Amino acid sequence: MVAILGLIVLIAGATKQFELPFKLGQPVQISLSPGALPGYALQTVLRLLIALCGSVLFTFIFATWAAKSRQAEKFIIPSIDILQSVPVLAFLSLTIVGFIKLFPNSLMGPESAVIFAIFTAQAWNMALSFYQSLKTVPRDYIEAADVFGLSAWQRFWRIEVPFATPALLWNMMLSMSQSWFALVASEAIQVSDQMIAIPGIGSYIGFALKQANGHAIFYAIITMLLVILLYDQLMFRPLVKWAEKFKIEQTSSEKSSSSWVMTAWARTALLQKFGAWFGAQVEKLINIKIFRGRPRAYDTLAGKYYRGIDWFWNAVLTIFVICAVLVLWRFVRQQVSVAEMLHVVVLGFYTWLRVLATVIISSLIWVPIAVWVGLRPKLAGYVQPVAQFLCAFPAYLLFPIVVALIVRFGLNVNIWTTPLMILGAQWYILFNVIAGTAAIPKDLKQATENLGVKGWLWWRKLILPAIFPYYITGAITAAGGAWNTSIVAEVITWGKTSLEAQGLGAYITHFTGDFAHTVLGVGAMCLFVFILNHVMWRPLYRLAVTRFQME
User: Fold this and answer.
1) Distance (Å, whole) CA 113 – CA 50
2) Nearest residue to 480 (alpha-carbon basis) of 97, 174, 46
3) Which of 155, 327, 351, 437 is the most exposed place for a label (fewest CB within 10 A)?
């Protein structure tokens, strides 16, 4: 009780920051003293948690809508594919003014913009993971739901959410870690030639990099490590332990993960009573009569009706896209020449080559490692916090090393900035493949052992088909993360030394604050992502859903 009350007091103290008066142009001081880091860490973590709650809500609403409705799927999934590739700076440039006007003379405006930017770094991969899980629910589970007469509402909470929970948890951990990557860009915002710095670890790192203060960067790394260990132990480790009961197992297996928080909860009578009361309320919500209507049967007449809706919806989307393209063309064409537009397309091709290299290299490195970890639950418990820290480690902190190596050995900037993109995107593949490997039913693994299946045959018949839907989700989000990271990786600065690679990321960074050029750069990036997703990733995703769905 003391710990819980202390946590509530700390959170209440941190939220007072949101209510402080603020006027545009008023400087917000950021101290590089180590003593300021605990307060900055608390404020940053609070923003991360608020954004995570919003991301979970977004996932449950829009990913479910896309999985259940063909019309919504045609709009929501391509939108998520594009939005996950839009750099954080672009979101900030387009939304910060609106948030400041929404909350005038209050720090709530910049705070809301920061939380929204963090949300954009979290929500997309969680939504895609949940969508993939809903599309690959085993058919025998669906048949069991029909036999028991479950409504769509009951089926969602009793079958689909439990089935999707393990993979969703891994992607929640990934989202929290990837949020750190966006913090430096989001906690220091440029508006009307004014720098708005929101107190937090991200702004602390940004100021330390500008001043080339190595000691401050070291203090920030230590603080990040401690914060990640704390929320891993207090939140994610208990959730992973709790989610073990949702694994698909048709044979008994020993649960090897542990959580001292879960143990403390089980030994505390008051918390047990609260948990029992909360569970009873959830049961009432799941079984509420208003949501217990049976779904309508799909007959020939209904099939013609739905096909008519599909044709109408496709026509509406086509008209909407054409109108949007025309509006953007007129806006950009008034301020940008056709020659520059063609130049931006060439820059997009350069960045696409780096994105492709990022996905291929990350897959070759991390798929075997992720399978090896996923098959060993006890090892995964040790790897989890380490992977979260490495995933959260901002590429900004490697700028001094990268700049020194490139300058010292005269390396090609266009090639050797790619590792920074790999650092930001590779974790999507690692976390999703671990989740997919851990979800393989134990009876399938035992069957292959009994039949003596080994080597490449074991990979081809068991592992690759089982992890393929998860890998495709990870590869799509990794590609989106690589496009997003390009805005940081293609322009690296340490002190007075600045190196720039050719690409869309560098173009957008260079023209930050110039609305027309920013729209052109982001629009070109979205066009590349849209074409590549429909030519390559979407067909692979359909293959994962139709051919490799678990029976």
Assistant:
1) 12
2) 174
3) 327
User: Which one, of 254, 256, 261, 205, lies nearest residue 232 by Cα?
Assistant: 261
Q: What one-letter code names the amino acid at 220?
A: A
Length reported for the chain: 551
Dist CA 262 CA 273 (whole Å): 14
> Cβ(511)–Cβ(518) under 8 Å?
yes
Alpha-carbon gap, residue 321 to 82, rounded angstroms: 14
**CATH class of segment(s) 2-247+336-547:** mainly alpha
Nearest to 204 by CA among 191, 225, 221: 221
d(CA 52, CA 164): 17
Q: Are 230 and 176 in contact (CB under 8 A)?
A: no
The two tokens of residue 429 are 């593949």
With vertex at residue 57, the alpha carbon angle to CA 127 and CA 438, rounded to the nearest 5 degrees, is: 45
Specify the pTM. Answer: 0.78
Q: What is the mean pLDDT of residues 236-245?
A: 83
Helix 418-438 / helix 161-186 crossing angle, nearest 10 deg: 160
Residue type for 329, please?
Answer: W
More confident site: 23 or 431? 431
Burial class, 444, CB count within 10 angstroms (exposed 0-12 / middle 13-18 / buried 19+) = middle
| Alpha carbons 284 and 286: distance in angstroms, whole number | 6
The percentage of residues in the chain with a pLDDT greater than 90, rounded to a whole number, is 7
pLDDT per residue over 434-470, tens digit each?
888 888 888 888 888 888 888 888 888 888 888 888 8
Share of the chain residues as helix, strand and coil, in percent rounded to the nearest 5: 80, 5, 20
Name every residue whose Cβ is closer than 8 Å to that of residue 454 and which is 6 or more positions away in sequence.
none
Question: What SS3 string covers 199-225?
Answer: CCHHHHHHHHHHCCCHHHHHHHHHHHH
Torsion angle of C-alpha atoms 449, 450, 451, 455, degrees rounded to 10: 20
- Mean pLDDT over the full length of the chain: 79
Distance of CA 271 to the CA centre of its chain: 32
Per-residue pLDDT at 298 exceeds 50 = no
Rounded Cα–Cα distance for residues 175 and 99 (Å): 23
Nearest to 505 by CA among 417, 429, 428: 417
Spell out where 36-191 has E strands: 188-191
Q: What is the DSSP letter of 375?
A: T
Q: Which pLDDT belongs to residue 300?
A: 47
- pLDDT at res. 58: 94
Instruction: Write the DSSP string, 50-80.
Output: HHHHHHHHHIIIIIHHHHH-HHHHHHHHHHH
Q: How far apart are CA 62 and CA 127, in angstroms?
A: 7
Whole-angstrom Cα distance, residue 544 to residue 538?
Answer: 10
Rounded Cα distance between 370 and 423, Å, is 16
Q: Which residues of 408-440 are buried (b: 16+ CB within 10 A; e: fewer)?
A: eeeeebbebbbbbbbbbbbbbbbbbbbbbbbbb
